[in-house]
Design brief:
8 helices; binds shikimate-3-phosphate
Length: 166
């Protein structure tokens, strides 16, 4: 099996699903944000604040380039990794892309008490999240080989659907 790339908005459950996919299939987990933070020795918030979003996006592309040479990785992508067409090409050429789709209310409930998403600072509310999802929707949908709706489902149910699609 090639890599599996989980894409979707912040809080759509990519990390939890990745971790369960690892338990179920033995595929190695790759947490893009964790690797980027580790490489930079900074939190994601600090990378955005000190080096800027464009720098972070460059690092995402570099990491996806490395991952495109690998196999059998379950990759939890940052929510904005699909914003660059070259990133989507790298993913498409090296695996399957699964979109986890969640309602803005679900995202809000999951993220409302967290502070580690710089793009939501000062904007942690359903209308903002909804608008951002709608802006990105065409990119998510164009990138995805398959989509799994996650609202109201357990991680196991989501993984079962993903495994049936692979
Ligand atoms: C981002 C999503 C975040 C992280 C960064 C930017 C985005 O990852 O990469 O804060 O642009 O949607 P998660 O989707 O894992 O929260």
């Amino acid at each position: 099996m090639n890599n599996v790339y989980l894409i979707g908005f912040m809080g759509s459950g990519k990390s939890a699903v990745c971790s369960r996919l690892h338990e179920l299939t033995g595929m190695e987990i790759v947490e893009m944000d964790a690797i980027l933070a580790d490489n930079e020795k900074m939190t994601i918030n600090d990378i955005f604040a000190n080096k800027g979003e464009a720098y972070f996006r460059d690092k995402e592309t570099e990491l996806l380039t490395q991952l495109s040479f690998e196999n059998r990785k379950a990759v939890s992508c940052g929510g904005g990794a699909i914003l660059r067409p070259e990133n989507v090409s790298l993913m498409k050429d090296s695996g399957k892309i699964i979109l986890l789709s969640a309602a803005p209310e679900t995202i809000y409930e999951r993220l409302k008490d967290s502070d580690d998403r710089p793009l939501l600072h000062g904007n942690m509310n359903v209308p903002f999240i909804s608008e951002m999802i709608e802006k990105r929707r065409p990119r998510y949908e164009a990138a995805a080989d398959c989509t799994v709706t996650v609202d109201g489902k357990t991680v196991d149910e989501i993984c079962k659907e993903i495994l049936a699609l692979l």
